[in-house]
């Protein structure tokens, strides 16, 4: 009886698992292809394709001087066909402004709603930006994604961004929102500074996304916050890549501009990987040299007096230091993605090699300096005296 019940239970469990696997994807597809869902997608897509620069641009809400500063970054005739994927850093000065139009999202001149944060007027700070690039349907335009970290004395925020880079003039237009906010392609298109760029961006995203609206649905847990348009013009620099940058928030009325005569400078992913490769090779050579010296020292220090010259406390502190270095590199590797992986591999290799040698040497020291070793040494001395 028990065996039949067990067999029946297993059969029902397998049947339920089969239903779950075979019908799960179809159920998800049906849930996303319901009449209500299809109607929503149809309305949304029609609205997206009917967007126009005159009626939907947030760039036109900016003050005239801000628009002129952003437009000055568009330099016809200049080209920058290299990928802008890389790591960048720079300085900025914050200026609060009054919006061009009295729109409903631009009324907070003194007090921002809860969850909104902007730097203080006339404050200074720095930025760190990580950009990735991938090709679009237009060979002259790349799709950009990444993040930017803005910080000053009383302001610290990390934003996720996406946008477009035009190789024909070296210009990039990006839209950035806080990490817990909902990033949509509509906002990227609305950030474009000209009617031509607006239409081109809408066409690129229209063809690239191909009607996939899942990325446009707003998560229920998404939070609102200050969003930023970032206008950049890239050019080559002796040590890497540099850019003129203008960061502006149309819903929090703040402008972040690089100081006069300065640029946002950075290094491309390819050049960064070259540097990390050199770092890895140099670090590995140093670790091997250190390992050889420790090995020779272990062979030479066979007596108690020689062992006592190197304190096991010092070696323990060095081991802890290497542990901290390993943890910091690993955190950076996990937080910033694949470009830091080579740092992670180099650190893991150095950590394992160094720790194994240090631990082996600690064992040697302990065997000589432990109470048992002293007792054995004293016993050997007494035997020598007796004989």
What can you see in these coordinates?
There is one protein chain. With 387 residues, the protein is of the alpha+beta class. The protein has two domains: 207 residues, Lipocalin; 115 residues, no CATH class. It contains eleven helices and nine strands. Strands 1, 2, 3, 4, 5, 6, 7, 8 and 9 form a nine-stranded antiparallel sheet that branches. The relative contact order is 0.11. About 7% of the residues have low confidence.
Summarize the structure.
The protein has 387 residues and is of the alpha+beta class. It has helices at residues 2-32, 35-49, 53-56, 64-71, 185-190, 195-209, 269-300, 304-308, 312-336, 341-369, 371-386; strands at 86-96, 124-135, 141-152, 156-166, 171-178, 228-237, 240-249, 254-257, 264-268.
Core attributes:
elongated, Lipocalin, 11 helices, single chain, 9-stranded antiparallel β-sheet, 48% helix, 387 residues, alpha+beta, 2 domains
Topology readout:
Elements lengths: L1 H31 L2 H15 L3 H4 L7 H8 L14 E11 L27 E12 L5 E12 L3 E11 L4 E8 L6 H6 L4 H15 L18 E10 L2 E10 L4 E4 L6 E5 H32 L3 H5 L3 H25 L4 H29 L1 H16 L1
Helicity level:
40-55%
Radius of gyration: 31 Å
CATH architecture descriptor of the largest domain: Beta Barrel
Instruction: Give the biggest sheet.
Output: 9 strands, antiparallel
Instruction: Output the CATH topology of the largest domain.
Output: Lipocalin
Uncertain segments of ≥5 residues (pLDDT<50)? 19-32, 102-108, 211-216
Would you state the CATH class of the largest domain? Mainly Beta
Distance between the termini: 82 Å
Average pLDDT reading? 72
Percentage of residues in DSSP E strands: 15-25%
Computed structural class: alpha+beta
Assign an overall shape: elongated
Q: How many domains, in number, for the residues?
A: 2
Count of individual helical segments:
11
Order of H and E elements = HHHHEEEEEHHEEEEHHHHH
